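Session log. Operator J.P. requested a structure for one protein chain; no other inputs attached. Running the standard single-chain path with token output.
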Amino acid sequence: MQKTNNTAVVTAEQIYLSLDILASIEKREPVVADASINGVDLSVARDNAGQLRLTGLESGERRVSATTLPDALRWLSWLKQLELADISIDYSDQQRPTIGGRYLLQQANVAFSDNYWQTQATLQLPAHLGNTVNFSGTAEIHSDYTLKAWQGKLLSDDVSIAPLLAEQSLNGALITSGIASLVIQAEQKTTGELLADVNLAVNDLMLLSDKTDEKLEVNGLQGRLKWQTQGQTWQLQSEGLQLQVADQAWPLTSFEVTQSADNVLRAQSNYLRLSDISSLALLMDNMPAPLLTTQPAGDIHDLSLRYQLETGLQSIQFKAQEIAMLPWQNYPGVTGLGFELDWQPEQAALTLTSHDTTLYADSWLEDAVYFDSLIGKLSWQQRDGNWHAVADELQVWNEDLHLQLDGRINHQDGISDSDLTLDMQDVVVNRWKKYVPQKVLPDDFKRWANDAFKDGVIRTGQMKLKGDLGAFPFDAASEQGTFDLALQVENAQLHYAPDWPDISQVDADISVQDDNLIIKSQSGQIAGFAFNNVTTSISNWILSNPILRLNGLMNGTTPQALRFLQNSPLKDRFGSIADWIKVEGNSDIQLQLMVPLINTAATEAEGHVTFAESKLTTSACLLYTSPSPRDRG
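Structure written below.
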């Protein structure tokens, strides 16, 4: 180094040195016992290569210093005491210009005795960085001048975070403002154990994305952090953490994270707010696609997880409340989801505790589905490609339905053996399409059922399925499984075929025999005719080519019988009768219908009409009068 001009490189108001005569004679060089330096002014600069130099000295050939920490401690240990005051440093930094400015070391004291160091200092920061930093510490060294143990305490007051971290991207996130006050106490013991205790208060922290307009405002963060490490093990825990993000305060939060010598990471937290984690993820780079797409929100309580660094997640348990997320791929979006999860690689238990829940399954259902409650338990086990699942009082209800699923599925060697029971109450029949994905229905059944169920309520019902799910629907007398269905229906209306009058106001029992859906009606109407004990069946109702058959006696008036002829496909053969006759009285119809539901044009009808006290007349004369029951008697 050489001086570049006549300007002073360093100025000092007072320098005091006290020599230790005996030590100087012993060392054969001057040994300073005490030193005091006051009123120093100097300028220091760091260039783009990271090299520090005094301003006013020209850079010449540089040699890499071979001075080690023990060497420095050996030289400093000859000092018994060093006092510094009013040391002004004008610092500039080409790599990080925002940390440049005038630093003032208001006072510092260093004392050494019997391998024991003690120091205390107060540093005034540049105005744009904050106020003051106070440091105090002690250290003990070995006879070879290596550190044996140390303790230190640092206090900072209203330090500006943004200039310190300017242009330092935190995986894509930039800190543009924020004020921090810290009290840090740290020590390293003779055993090598490192401890740190941090009390912090951070306010008005603003994070921005370096690529988008996303931002996250942390209004306040206060609490206590403790750090402990020795060898490959470490622990980080918090106490009384208070966090406010986007003007929303978290509950008082605590967490603990540890890593053991076998590289197992364990974490616990009493609370996490998912919406804040999602907001932070949107600022950062290389975040998982499901997290960025679904943007989960809601509250996580009592989180506990275990992660093995080589093999991955080992276990996780938590409680979730008011979970909301957007759809992702074929997974539905949801709001108002609540559950408890206990997961391990080969088993899991899920307890649903949801109320006021809405599903947004766009790839499965046309509209969102709302549930007042979604509760119950699901458990799962798996090993070597085989798995076992159990549903225990899994209940779903809203104004359209109340369902409860119980049972199990055991998948072993490629066969899914099931024993499932679905109980139903107050199911509104004509809203079934809201809950059943159309893509899973056979095309023939879907075309017919799309507009078939007009009205009615399944007051009570039960469905039981036992056997191999892969063989469903089971053949008659199949050893692969059984399917039973029993429903009690009230005020049902069935639009079974175009042009034919609907079956309405039906109270019936519905059951399944093999692949036949059997409807035994206690009462109902068709074209105004009342009927009793009419049986309607739909064969092949799950397989292709379903066929409806109706057989029963209906009671009504003769004008209703005539209208039945006019308002059904029978009008082509008999409808013209109404143009030249008038009728009155009562009639009974014994009707048999066969309707191929995928080809209703091939419908077949058979039956006969019995007239009771009826009159048929033309405009010219009376054609027929049926006898009254009394006359027939």
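Operator note: The chain is about 10% helix and 60% strand.
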